[in-house]
UniProtKB/TrEMBL annotation, chains A, B:
Family: Belongs to the SbcD family.
UniProt xrefs under InterPro entries: Calcineurin-like_PHP (IPR004843), DNA_Repair-Maintenance_Comp (IPR050535), Metallo-depent_PP-like (IPR029052), Mre11_N (IPR041796), SbcD (IPR004593), SbcD_C (IPR026843)
All copies of domain Calcineurin-like phosphoesterase, residue ranges: 24-236
Protein name: Nuclease SbcCD subunit D
Domain of life: Bacteria
SUPFAM superfamilies in the record: Metallo-dependent phosphatases
Subunit structure: Heterodimer of SbcC and SbcD.
Length: 404, 404
């Protein structure tokens, strides 16, 4: 069976060659956010590891280009080890593996700083567009035209194009694409590389559409002239469902809100008419980012954690009621990379909370009331030190208010 | 006469060609300090202008290389317009004028940030060494070997070379040069490009030697193996008088202590034995930096200032005694770029100052005493507002000290 499929594939490939259909393959990635700090922890080592996997994928896939759709760095002045990491990885991809690279600045990058040296990079087909210019000529690689649109605020585009009618990202993108269309040949494969908040198509999460609306968004319909639009900005590859306008998603999970997102890179193979196939390849970080929920005792039980990847980056939600003594340090002895700890109130707790105002009638002292509040709201112990400090404050307030 | 000299020159040049003496010409510059802020004023526009002159000199001289001996930027994270300026100027020199460039990081540059992309620059003979490595192979341009030694702290060199005996800059440079000597061919022209505080030879200013001594300095004798040592760090080309070890001096005057220094670039023509001629070419900034001294009235007199270059960057020293009403704003109406204003006390003033402690016997009130002090020490008026504010302070202090 496998042999027959293989034989058919070869026939198809040869037919394609005979009728002159040229295939161009590129990898679409974005939002590397090198130098990112998550809950106080630098992601650089995790990023290095995943980028090394990425380089291996490039070596295997042998694409005609790698497209990076913005936010290479997490901020305009990234830490120096992030600068060194980007330099090293791009060198491996572009110079050692001789793969053309097409990259744009995102809103997290500094257009000017990222641009430095880009004139020299072109020598080896590394096309880096940091700052938007009013030249709308595409970069041509193996018959595909890549139109590069680095992130720019509407005001910057208004000034650059001397067009006072530009007020929103939608206006800006529409005008920019209009300029491109003046010379774009619709019979060729054209790819736009952009970094924007694009809505439209069958968007996955309808609530999001309602909540984000306004001038920050760009309608997917604007990208109609292009065979494929390679986007960066939103971190999930599922942020938009559209046949031709796609996010690759970020390199890694960069917040616990992304804990359930899949992370991948996109591999596109495009023919000379701009028709393409699209598939995902995933990269596996050494430390995943995920959420864990349970009672403290359960989480600290070897029977439980033996089955867990204990060194993942974790947000732990404790279900325990009442006071717990130093849970964060106890958890870190088992799970070294706990980044965030929360406590969840169950219904009983909520009821307690709702009846909080009526508690005074129980004739508890102020300090007893505060202790109850503290243990319900935090995961730390209400120590004797804290008790004394609080007692002083209560005493002072009561006296100042004339209640004592 | 001129014709005869010209004829002789041609004969000499042809003779040199016949006997096979190859000449290599390079320009030595350093300490551009792009993004420098002097007394609150960005020098970027002045730097742009002088660098444009520099590019013109490169176009005229047609050197085989331009050597920049560190401190391209003034700080590790320079302002973005300085980043754009460096990018633009290096592109003109290296790509448009096709001139090889050899550059190292100085103590003001960030080794890692400056290094980004340097692997790509080599394509077009732009050799940028930001971070010291343990590869001591020279860059070869037209028969001359350039050994690049970017600035590094002794601790960094100690770690890099795994040599615990390195404690000072002297130790570090000695060890580095020792490594280079292992493969250096003394019969070839060898140039070291470094950024250091080098002393030795006939140093111009003996006081300086005494005052700076210690671990920050490097002895000029270390550079003996090299035909020429192109230095950066000290801002005057006269910082050292040595036949083979030279500073080019900074691009511009960067403080009033440099007001009387000449600023230039060095042009070196070297034969294949390492023998060289050395000459200076000066660049003329639109705004010079200089000091001006006089009485306020005189400086504001059109007969005086008509002969002055009023838009230079100025440090003005006023010789007036007593109170002056808002002299800085009056001066700026004539001299828009006054960066610093001082008042000089003559002997009478000094006597007044010395007898300051005895003034109390004159039975002046505290506020009168302060007013006298204020007008002697500053160039501003002691306004009614200031008087009232000060009176409140004096009142408070006297009361607290129980003197009232």
């Amino acid at each position: 069976m496998a042999n027959r499929i293989f034989a058919i594939m070869i026939v198809l490939k040869n037919t394609a060659k005979k009728i002159g259909v040229k295939q161009m393959k590129f990898i679409h990635t974005a939002d590397w956010h090198l130098g990112k700090l998550v809950h106080g922890v630098y992601m650089t080592e995790n990023q290095r590891e995943v980028l090394e996997q990425f380089v291996t994928v490039v070596a295997e896939e042998k694409p005609d280009a790698v497209v990076i759709a913005g936010d290479l760095y997490d901020r305009s002045v990234p830490p120096t080890d992030a600068v060194e990491l980007l330099d090293e990885m791009l060198f491996k991809i572009n110079v050692e593996l001789k793969t053309p690279v097409v990259a744009i600045a995102g809103n997290h990058d500094s257009a000017e700083r990222l641009s430095f040296g880009s004139s020299w990079y072109k020598h080896s087909q590394f096309y880096l567009s940091g700052k938007l210019t009013n030249s709308f000529n595409p970069v041509q690689i193996n018959g595909v035209n890549f139109y590069l649109v680095p992130y720019a605020e509407p005001g910057v585009v208004r000034q650059l194009l001397e067009d006072d009618s530009i007020h929103s990202h939608q206006d800006a993108m529409k005008t920019l694409i209009g300029k491109m269309e003046e010379s774009l040949n619709p019979h060729e494969p054209n790819v736009l590389v952009g970094h924007a908040f694009v809505l439209g198509g069958q968007t996955s999460d309808s609530e999001r559409v309602l909540s984000v609306g306004g001038s920050g968004c760009v309608g997917a319909e604007l990208f109609e002239p292009f065979s494929y639009t390679a986007l960066g900005h939103l971190h999930s590859p599922d942020a938009i469902y559209h046949s031709k306008v796609k996010y690759s998603g970020s390199l890694l999970k960069y917040s616990f809100s992304e804990a359930k997102q899949r992370k991948s890179i996109s591999i596109i193979e495009m023919d000379e008419k701009g028709e393409f196939t699209h598939r995902y390849r995933s990269l596996t970080p050494k430390h995943d980012m995920r959420e864990l929920e349970g009672h403290l005792e359960e989480l600290l039980d070897p029977h439980f954690y033996e089955k867990e990847r204990i060194d993942d980056y974790l947000k732990i939600t404790l279900l325990d009621e009442g006071a717990l003594i130093d849970p964060i340090n106890k958890l870190r002895q088992v799970y070294p990379n706990v980044l965030h700890l929360e406590r969840k109130m169950d219904i009983t707790d909520l009821k307690k909370k709702q009846s909080f105002n009526s508690i005074r009638s129980e004739k508890k002292s102020e300090i007893e009331l505060f202790e109850q509040f503290y243990t319900e709201m935090t995961t730390a112990e209400f120590t004797q030190d804290k008790k004394e400090a609080m007692a002083t404050v209560i005493e002072k307030v009561l006296r100042e208010e004339g209640l004592k």
